[in-house]
Design goal:
Blueprint: H1 19-31, E1 37-38, H2 50-61, H3 74-88, E2 97-100, H4 104-114, E3 120-124, H5 129-137, E4 141-145, E5 147-149, E6 154-156, H6 158-164, E7 169-174, H7 187-199, E8 203-207, E9 232-237, E10 250-253, H8 256-269, H9 275-286, H10 290-310, E11 326-327, H11 332-338, H12 343-354, E12 356-357, E13 359-360, E14 376-379, H13 385-400
Parallel strand pairs: 1-12, 3-4, 3-7, 7-8, 8-9
Antiparallel strand pairs: 2-10, 5-6, 9-10, 11-14, 13-14
Helix pairs in contact: 2-9, 3-9, 4-5, 4-8, 10-13
Length: 401
């Protein structure tokens, strides 16, 4: 027996993370008995370091299974403040930290705290699809800015960003160390972004999910620039650095006035974040960091193999980025050579004939006016070296056949 009902109008503006759609297609292909090489989803097939898992089990045995303060246990908040003060030159205390069940809630809670309906929000496109989805779902106007290829990597089109600012622009979202392109800001880029934010009095969400996935040297946060600490909230997540994607743990760090409101949203949304996972995270921050270095070493090996194999394919070119675990190869000529004009047909054909599953530019926002090159996104975080070589060898054979 059916019941007629009407959905809220805002539901029409709710998007999805399209990498999971590609994952479903890959799973169906594998279920039919085919070999699949999974380059589509930014998950890690590496185990969470044992001392972190043991800390979680110990916390459960100690009865740390009840509610906590809505913003998280004070020990973890103090540890995160100390971590940021050391790595980002802040002067945070626990009052500047709200623990979250993952990184994604920081996006929505930040927008709910500072965005009014009709406010314009600048966001990167290509970019994480949840930015646009959450802006529009909560009544904002999503305004994209793009990325451009540089000499050795992609960077953000800051000229386009500045042109997009209007008298309705209220918020800027920045994902330095970028998903999907691995774009990384130079020191000059960071200064210019900060100058624009201050000049136009913008609130800023700094998505630093990949801050610690940096292979040579250290990441530098835009929050260190003048005028940024008082207008910025940083999205932090344990998922990448500690191989804790499924643990669903992150944090918002920023001005205490904003963090207080985000804490109230915690009360309304989920009460608090899982307690024993927070104790595991405390061990992650303060315990042995050699497993973190081991994770980076493995990812770097995978990156190098992927880049070498991709650049050996006719019609494909790929930068060797210094951060994240994504590659954004240019496949314009390869698609033309195979007679494809649309991404969907191309990636479906690659999956069918080579077993390689990947995302395309179209999964990370509608291409912007003037875009003419074709790109794919390959995540190498969830695939072993032997499978990388086998899969990309088949990819090459298919493209060059």
């Amino acid at each position: 027996m059916s019941h007629a009902f009407t959905l809220a109008n805002r539901v029409a503006n709710l998007g999805v993370e399209t990498a999971f759609v590609v994952a479903g297609q890959a799973a169906a292909h594998a279920a039919a008995g085919n070999r699949v090489y999974p380059f589509h989803l930014g998950d890690l097939n590496l185990a969470t370091p044992a001392h972190i898992t043991e800390a979680a089990c110990r916390a459960v045995k100690e009865g740390k299974t009840g509610y906590t303060a809505n913003v998280g246990i004070v020990e973890l908040r103090e540890a995160l403040a100390e971590e940021f003060n050391r790595t980002r030159n802040t002067s945070y205390t626990e009052a500047n930290v709200a623990v979250q069940p993952g990184g994604k809630p920081v996006i929505s809670k930040f927008l709910l705290t500072v965005m009014n309906p009709g406010d314009e929000v600048l966001y990167p496109n290509p970019g994480f699809p949840i930015y646009e989805s959450q802006v529009e779902f909560h009544g904002g106007v999503a305004v994209p800015y793009g990325t451009v290829p540089g000499e050795s990597n992609f960077t953000f089109d800051l000229d386009q960003l500045e042109r997009a600012i209007s008298d309705k622009t209220r918020i800027l979202i920045v994902n330095d160390l970028h998903n999907p392109t691995s774009a990384e800001c130079s020191a000059e880029d960071r200064r210019r972004i900060a100058e624009l934010a201050v000049k136009y009095d913008l609130m800023v969400l700094l998505d630093e999910a990949y801050f610690d996935i940096h292979y040579d040297g250290q990441s530098t946060s835009i929050i260190t620039e003048p005028g940024m600490k008082e207008r910025s909230v940083v999205l932090y997540t344990f998922s990448k650095r500690f191989a804790m994607t499924g643990w669903r743990l992150g944090a918002a760090l920023g001005p205490d006035e904003i963090i207080t409101i985000i804490g109230k949203l915690n009360v309304n949304d989920e009460s608090c974040t899982n307690q024993f996972v927070q104790w595991a995270a405390l061990e992650a921050l303060g315990g042995d960091q050699q497993p973190v270095r081991d994770i980076l070493d493995i990812l770097k090996q995978r990156r190098d193999l992927c880049v070498d194999l991709l650049n050996d394919i006719e019609g494909v070119s790929c930068f060797r980025p210094n951060a994240t675990f994504y590659l954004w190869p240019d496949v314009t000529e390869a698609m033309l050579n195979k007679g494809f004009s649309t991404y969907q047909e191309f990636i479906e054909s690659v999956l069918k004939h080579a077993g390689v599953s990947m995302c395309a530019r179209s999964h990370f926002g509608t291409p912007l006016p003037g875009e003419s090159r074709k790109y794919l996104r390959l995540a190498y975080s969830g695939i072993e070296l032997a499978a990388i070589e086998e899969g990309l060898t088949k990819f090459k054979a298919y493209l060059e056949s």
